[in-house]
Design a protein that fits this description.
Layout (H helix, E strand, L loop, with lengths): L8 H16 L3 E6 L4 H9 L24 E8 L2 E3 L2 H13 L3 E2 L11 E3 L5 H8 L2 H5 L13 H12 L16 H17 L1
Bound molecules: zinc ion (ZN).
Length: 196
């Protein structure tokens, strides 16, 4: 399994897009870190505290969105090697932002230029709602191939569309009917009935 496949499905596609958009802008980037296990986050947190090296994170497990599969780090490759010149990252950051990602380079206290994450998530809220990263990950929905639609369903949908009761682009037979779906069908039906 590739590292990128360990990310939340939405972030996974954005990470792939970022690689492509960066390439279009003339930069080769690689994904260096995605989902972090407890051991990996603990080791990272120890660095610069109980182990040698500079401090690289303020987050204990699971306080980083990396632990929840909602963040990834990049490296810019120049002449076949990772290059940490901030000017390159300051070019990539806004590209990531244009894809709807949060860029760590904007963080005032502890700027983290190689870091990108999905907006709208906080580790504390994730912990409250899901408990642990593995429980959160278990809720991810993979993009599944479209299920086969039996011909009679297809026919019913076609006739309902022709009668003006459903809108075929919105009401798809393979999707479950929620309240809004049912109400839309009823409203459309009333509209059709009052017209005649
Ligand atoms: Zn990061």
């Amino acid at each position: 399994m590739e590292k990128i496949d360990l990310l939340h499905p939405v972030l996974r596609s954005k990470a792939r897009l970022l690689i492509n958009r960066a390439a279009e802008a003339g930069f080769r980037i690689i994904i260096t870190q995605t989902l972090r296990t407890k051991e990996e986050q603990d080791a990272l947190y120890a660095q610069g505290r109980t182990r040698p090296g500079p401090i690289v994170t303020q987050a204990r497990y699971p306080q980083s969105l990396h632990c929840w599969g909602l963040a990834f780090d990049i490296a810019v490759i120049i002449d076949g090697r990772a290059n940490w010149n901030v000017a390159y990252y300051d070019r990539i950051g806004p590209i990531g932002e244009s894809l709807g990602l949060v860029w760590g380079g904007r963080w005032s206290g502890f700027p983290d230029r190689p870091h990108f994450q999905l907006p709208g998530y906080e580790w504390s809220r994730l912990e409250t709602v899901y408990g642990t990263p593995s429980k959160f990950i278990a809720t991810w929905k993979e993009e599944k191939p479209m299920p086969e639609i039996p011909p009679w369903k297809d026919q019913v949908m076609k006739e309902a569309a022709q009668a003006g009761i459903i809108m075929p682009n919105i009401h798809k037979p393979q999707e479950p009917a929620d309240k809004a779906f049912v109400l839309a069908v009823i409203l459309n039906l009333l509209r059709v009935l009052t017209k005649n």
